[in-house]
């Protein structure tokens, strides 16, 4: 062996790779005394059994995809199969995270490389870039790839299908790569854009499904003790708002309603000025206090819809907990530093829009508030992935959710695996679309001058609904800040999964016993006139939706419902007649 070969072995050999921490950063997960976890070793053995040019590994967030990828890269470098590495990450912050992790494996990656540089200094073994960076100048990255035997690591590879230019750029830049390793923590997408370098196979339903070379899902990782169990706290409540047409609406969050009504009720709940959001943040802070009794550095994260709401949520939290809240608004120069400071500190709360939704590693996060209107399975899984990274035995994650059917469905299916499907005809899946919702709230072009109203949240109230854990539900509707709510949000922060389930069952029994013996308040039943007012509001809202869909008038839709269901005009209709018309109109909505 020559001196140069000896140095190469020392640099990229087993010693460097075997001393990677199981997770990044330094706070390693519980139960990982061996250098590689069983799934990582298994995946490496599968790869080196055939050494394919393309390999897609899907592993749940927190399982250690970075460690697996760098171990594989180190071995390919040691064997001389490749000479340089390019890592493609979704965000600027993740570029630094990858470079730091690679340094621990004695692999030098340059996260500061810019397209204008043309090439990277040869004291580095490769570069870390973003998908947007590749799409902007694919020819630069193609030249780097072709300048030597290259390994390309595509982190969260589904981003290659985010836009046509991104997919085309990735294909152009890396088609000549010697090896390509694709990674994802969420092996599905919410659209049908093909992902570069992913194989698809036809199925009996006519769709083409992605082929994953190695899967390590949340369910298996939970059994292995690699990730935390997640408890979902669901909150319902009553919402009131004014539509763009000036109609005042009222609905109960969590009820099965038309899509537009559910969307507007959800938006109303997330309004920082409403009582619903403020109460949920108070309850989440109480939960964090209980968790910190067993895990002193446990932190919380609120995912907001936009920057304005993020700032307002942070202000509310600061008034609740009396501490400064870290706010991460965008992928700017200071955002990475704020995330890193929060990750290594002990402060209570961080509020972010989307930057912390994917890949960012903050292992001490234990409590979350899902305060965003995004509802695709991909985004939901990415957000929940921020809370499942296990550091010690028995840590439990808790996420607070609006009681929206699509979110509750995603929470209950957390352990299920999904593949990316192409060409599958779907009916409306009930997912809320932010752009469609915003467009629906705007009056038509010809109506804009005459319409003096804009969509406006009026009021909201929160009710603790239930707990979801695995495929089971616990609890019942109770007022917040009561003993019945505290029974659930006050459970210990260190519990085994079996202990969580047993404790929730006992708390449910205790809650039911309390509620059954408590005398009913005389004012729990509303006066008839109030109930009828709410039914009229709902009927008018449905009429507005149907009229807009058909480009008809409100009067014509009211007349149609009256002819179909019978009865007098709305003002004189009975409760049952109003409900019949509501049921009729719900069936008319497309």
Q: Which keywords apply here?
A:
590 residues; alpha/beta; ten-stranded mixed β-sheet; seven-stranded parallel β-sheet; 20 strands
How would you describe what is shown here?
There is one protein chain. With 590 residues, the chain is α/β, with parallel strands linked by helices. The strands form three sheets. Strands 10, 11, 12, 13, 14, 15, 16, 18, 19 and 20 form a ten-stranded mixed β-sheet that branches. A seven-stranded parallel β-sheet has the order 3-4-2-5-6-1-9. A three-stranded antiparallel β-sheet has the order 7-8-17, with no helix packed on it. Helix 19 runs parallel beside helix 21 (575-588). The chain is globular, with a radius of gyration of 27 Å. Residues 1-34, 424-452 and 521-525 have low confidence and may be disordered.
The value of Rg in angstroms is: 27 Å
Please mark out the parts with pLDDT under 50 across 5 or more consecutive residues, or reply none. 1-34, 424-452, 521-525
* Strand percentage: 15-25%
Morphology call: globular
Distance between the termini: 73 Å
Largest sheet: 10 strands, mixed
- Percentage of helical residues? 40-55%
Q: How many helices?
A: 21
Summed over residues and divided by their number, the pLDDT gives a mean of 80
Quaternary structure: single chain
How many strands appear in the DSSP assignment? 20
Category from helices, strands and their pairing: alpha/beta
């Amino acid at each position: 062996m020559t001196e140069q070969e000896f140095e190469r072995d020392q640099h990229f050999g087993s010693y460097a790779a075997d001393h990677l921490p199981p997770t990044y950063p330094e706070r390693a997960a519980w139960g990982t005394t061996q250098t590689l976890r069983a799934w990582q070793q298994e995946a490496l053995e599968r790869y080196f059994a055939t050494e394919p040019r393309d390999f897609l590994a899907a592993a749940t967030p927190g399982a250690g995809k970075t460690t697996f990828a760098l171990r594989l890269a180190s071995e390919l470098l040691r064997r001389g199969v490749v000479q340089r590495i390019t890592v493609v990450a979704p965000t600027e912050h993740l570029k630094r995270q990858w470079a730091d992790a690679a340094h621990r494996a004695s692999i030098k990656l340059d996260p500061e490389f810019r397209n204008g540089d043309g090439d990277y200094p040869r004291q580095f073994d490769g570069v870390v870039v973003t998908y947007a960076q590749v799409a902007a100048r694919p020819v630069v990255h193609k030249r780097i790839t072709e300048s030597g035997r290259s390994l390309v690591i595509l982190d969260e590879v589904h981003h290659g299908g985010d836009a046509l230019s991104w997919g085309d750029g990735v294909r152009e830049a890396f088609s000549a790569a010697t090896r390509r390793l694709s990674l994802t923590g969420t092996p599905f997408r919410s659209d049908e854009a093909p992902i570069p370098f992913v194989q698809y196979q036809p199925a009996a339903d006519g769709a083409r499904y992605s082929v994953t070379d190695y899967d390590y899902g949340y369910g298996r990782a939970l059994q292995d003790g690699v990730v935390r169990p997640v408890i979902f706290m669901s909150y319902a409540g009553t919402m009131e708002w004014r539509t763009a047409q000036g109609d005042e609406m009222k609905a109960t969050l969590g009820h099965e309603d038309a899509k537009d009504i559910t969307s507007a009720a959800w938006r109303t709940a997330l309004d920082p000025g409403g009582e619903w959001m403020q109460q949920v943040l108070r309850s989440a802070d109480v939960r964090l206090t209980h968790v910190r009794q067993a895990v002193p550095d446990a932190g919380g994260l609120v995912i907001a819809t936009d920057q304005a709401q993020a700032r307002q949520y942070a202000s509310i939290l600061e008034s609740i907990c009396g501490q400064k809240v870290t706010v991460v608004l965008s992928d700017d120069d200071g955002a990475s530093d704020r995330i890193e400071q929060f990750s290594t500190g002990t402060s209570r709360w961080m509020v972010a829009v989307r930057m912390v939704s994917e890949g960012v590693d903050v292992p001490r996060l234990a409590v979350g508030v899902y305060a965003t209107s995004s509802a695709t399975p991909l985004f939901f899984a990415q957000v929940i992935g921020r809370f499942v990274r296990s550091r010690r035995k028995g840590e439990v994650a808790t996420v607070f959710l609006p009681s929206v059917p699509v979110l509750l469905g995603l929470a209950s299916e957390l352990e299920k695996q999904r593949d990316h499907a192409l060409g599958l005809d779907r009916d409306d899946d009930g997912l809320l679309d932010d752009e469609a919702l915003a467009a629906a709230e705007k009056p038509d072009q010809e109506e804009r001058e005459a319409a003096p109203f804009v969509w406006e949240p009026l009021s909201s109230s929160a009710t603790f609904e239930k707990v979801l854990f695995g495929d089971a539900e616990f609890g019942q509707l109770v007022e917040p800040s009561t003993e019945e709510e505290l029974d659930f949000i006050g459970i210990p922060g260190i519990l085994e999964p079996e202990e969580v389930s047993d404790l929730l069952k006992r708390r449910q029994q205790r809650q039911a016993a309390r509620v059954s013996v408590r005398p009913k308040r005389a004012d729990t039943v509303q006066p008839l006139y109030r109930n009828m007012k709410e039914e009229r509001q709902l009927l008018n809202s449905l009429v507005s939706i149907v009229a807009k869909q058909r480009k008809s008038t409100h009067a014509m839709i009211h007349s149609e419902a009256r002819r179909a269901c019978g009865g007098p005009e709305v003002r004189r209709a009975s409760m049952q007649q109003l409900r019949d018309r509501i049921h009729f109109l719900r069936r008319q909505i497309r």
